[in-house]
Amino acid sequence: MNKKTTPLTLIEKEYALPGNRACVGCGLAIAYRHGLKALGDDVILTVPASCLTVLQGMYPVSSMLVPCLNTAFETTAASATGIKAALRALGRNTTTVVGWAGDGGTADIGIQALSGAAERNEDFIYVCYDNEAYMNTGTQKSGSTPMGARTTTTIGGKLQHKKDMAQIMSAHNIPYVVTVSPSYPMDLHDKFKKAKDISGTRYIHILIPCPPGWGYDPQYTVQIGRMAIECGMFDLYEVENGAFSFYGPSKKIAEKGDRKPVEEYIRAQSRFKGIDQATIDELQKWVDSKWETYRQLGYCNQ
Amino acid sequence: MNENAKNKPVKQTTNDVAIMTANHAAAYAAKLAEVQVISAYPITPQSPVVEKLMEYVGSGEMKAEFVTVESEHSAITVCIAASAVGARVFTASCANGLALMHEMLHWAAGTRLPIVMAIPNRAVAAPWNILNDQQDSISQRDTGWMQIYCRNNQEVMDTVIQAFKIAEEVYIPIMVCYDGYVLSHTLMPVDVPDGAKVKSFLPEYVPHTVLDPQNPRNINPVTLADPRINAEGTLCHGYYEIRYLLQEAHTRAIEVTQKVGREFGKLFGREYGIIDTYRCENAKLVALSMGSVASEAMDAVDMLRDEGYDIGVMHLRLYRPFPAAEIAEAVRSIGCRGLAVMEKNTSYGYEGVLCSDTKAALFDHRVDVFAHSYVMGLGGRDVKVQDITEALKKSYEYLDKPRQEQFKTQEWINCKI
Amino acid sequence: MGTRDCKHITASSSPSIGEAGRTGDWRVKHPEINNDICTPAKTGKPSCFICWSFCPDAVMTKTVPLTIDLEYCKGCGICAQECPTGAITMVDDDRGFSHTC
């Protein structure tokens, strides 16, 4: 088992260059920075329409030191498939192909291509960075928006719960599914590194706190991400060849059961402004139910 | 201009004549071209192309990565990504499947990728219809793809091979179209080109931009309206200039298509151009068409010539880029006074697109002949020789009218409304 | 002098720092590290570097002491928020002047 990376041991090379278009305090910028450090030089990225498209710069200047093929919104998994197929045909077998899509491009418009690719166990890493709405186009709802959250298309707060993409991908029986957080960048780095050495379809789901979209001061990006995990709205776990295991703070929650109530997390973000008690209770029930399922499946006793 | 007498036997360069459908010919040509990545989604009547390719790959006759995607949108995306990385790619689709690809057709052309797609033309829903017409490929006319229409299975075999060469020289994706069922499922003798000769005919595909970790570039990011200076201080394109380059390449592609057609002729004994004519000497009226209707029209013209009509057939092989000057010149040099444009498509709200495009070309080049628009065969409505002869006779009556009375509104042949 | 000389036939970008310009202009506050409190600065040994690890824009150097590139620092304040010793404070920018740490 490899030793856990620390800021001391983490490589210094930056693949994401400063002075890019990420918002102030962008959670994706942290995740992307560490993901790329873990993936190294020999990668080809493919990125659909999303915040990352903009972060990566406008022609003819890019902001990253890795090659990338931009692609249409719904096509990330198909694009990654095509890149890998060509690499195989050309005998270039060392390069890792990584798709980086937002929650819109994953849970909504992109889900067909992703599901198809996962069924074929295509050999690439698929990263879903989930800021829980279509942030790039001004915060419209996505299938990954939590209940109660206001967006421009869920004015009074979303009426439905979010899709659990990590579980959907787990049900495809792909070799590796993992959830990570920019609040725990060393874990994020190490999971990316682990994924890199696995063959087949690997799915990485990142919860990305978003200052303008979620409504909080940018300095709290890392803290908000922590709070999401501490109250069980987002859970850190791996599913490796079907075997589920929590890690990090979620593992502690599984062992000790000391999950915080969701209310503090909700009240810290103005996207939940005006939320009524009934909806808060619904969210708490959703989290409780999710954790009860984990318990019944034996996940809390790893 | 090629004057193909329709009953001349196909010139054989090898003893390898097979009886095959156009679908089989398209797949076989892709095999000869040694494509490296195939991704396609089945749709009637294209499925045999995909199945044939799978047979070749499965038996080891063909070394290609074959991705069985879950939709046409993903099929074309896989081709785009693979072509961008540097693999020679091939796909096939038609009708609603081709329509589903539409967004990515723009993408492929805008990325200047030499993807070759075989299209056994089929009617687009609604309502559902699996039979032949050309509305599917015609609807994609403005995406920036080249389009070549084939009259018979030999042309399909030969054109798919040439398509790789043309596309990889001008960096434009290309559709090779042939009528669904009429050609896709009909057996004809096809001279099968020798594999080694095809290999020598087609140079290795060299992508114009490389995805190389050693030299990281970001391909197809957001591009501004205006030019912008890059990190090296060079003024780079705006979106407008990138699209201009595509148009420029299309203009060059007319000559490249002719050049490749000549080179093919030298090596394989069958030369190809962009316009074919049949019995146009002294023709007063010319039937203009694309695809198998042009073959049908040759029989019609034989009958009419016997009856004393001075009518010929012109087949437009290359539809996009549209060889406006060449068509106008061909019509002018024939000296006919009118065209009967027969096509299996229409631009709703106006008329058949070949008719419109041709009239514009004639107007620009001051060739003042009439062009009647005939729509036929949509949804597999049978196009009989007598349908064509009736239409041609009708248009023939306009030859002696005063010029200002020679216009006739679009007519739908054999419509039983 | 047209754009044809760039020799691109499709949109293909090359990398550079500062793609969005001088993003230091975005901020209203900038971080200042108190090297008497900052662990690596105080001990003179590489250690901690938590602020460096969280910086979304990679404008900090993993050096002893750390430096911050104020040309591109957007002033998000995450470093100050996450510093375990409270060594970083966010200080109002003087409008119109740039300075290094």
Number of distinct helices of chain C: 3
Largest sheet of chain B: 7 strands, mixed
Q: What is the name of the CATH class of chain C?
A: Alpha Beta
Low-pLDDT ranges of chain B: none
Task: Enumerate the strands of the largest sheet of chain B in spatial order, edge to edge or round the barrel.
Answer: 1-13-15-14-17-18-19
Q: Topology as H/E string of chain C?
A: EEHHHE
What is the gyration radius of chain C calculated from CA atoms? 17 Å
User: Number of domains in the coordinates of chain C?
Assistant: 1
Mean of pLDDT of chain B:
95
| Helix run count of chain B | 13
Inertia-based shape of chain C: elongated
**What is the β-strand count of chain C?**
3
Question: What's the overall geometry of chain B?
Answer: globular
How would the blueprint of this fold be written?
The complex is a heterotrimer of chains A (302), B (417) and C (101).
Chain A: H1 27-39, E1 43-47, H2 51-55, E2 61-62, E3 68-70, H3 76-89, E4 96-102, H4 104-108, H5 111-119, E5 125-130, H6 165-170, E6 176-180, H7 185-196, E7 202-207, H8 211-215, H9 221-230, E8 237-240, E9 243-246, H10 248-256, H11 263-267, H12 277-296
Parallel strand pairs in A: 1-3, 1-4, 4-5, 5-7, 6-7
Antiparallel strand pairs in A: 6-8, 8-9
Chain B: E1 2-3, E2 17-20, H1 22-32, E3 37-39, H2 47-59, E4 65-67, H3 72-85, E5 89-92, H4 95-100, H5 102-110, E6 116-121, H6 135-138, E7 146-149, H7 153-170, E8 174-179, E9 188-191, H8 195-201, E10 218-219, E11 228-229, E12 235-236, H9 239-268, E13 275-278, E14 285-289, H10 292-306, E15 311-316, E16 318-320, H11 324-334, E17 338-343, H12 353-364, E18 370-375, H13 385-396, E19 411-412
Parallel strand pairs in B: 1-13, 3-4, 3-5, 5-6, 6-8, 7-8, 14-15, 14-17, 17-18, 18-19
Antiparallel strand pairs in B: 2-9, 7-16, 11-12, 13-15
Chain C: E1 12-15, E2 29-33, H1 39-43, H2 50-54, H3 78-82, E3 88-92
Antiparallel strand pairs in C: 2-3
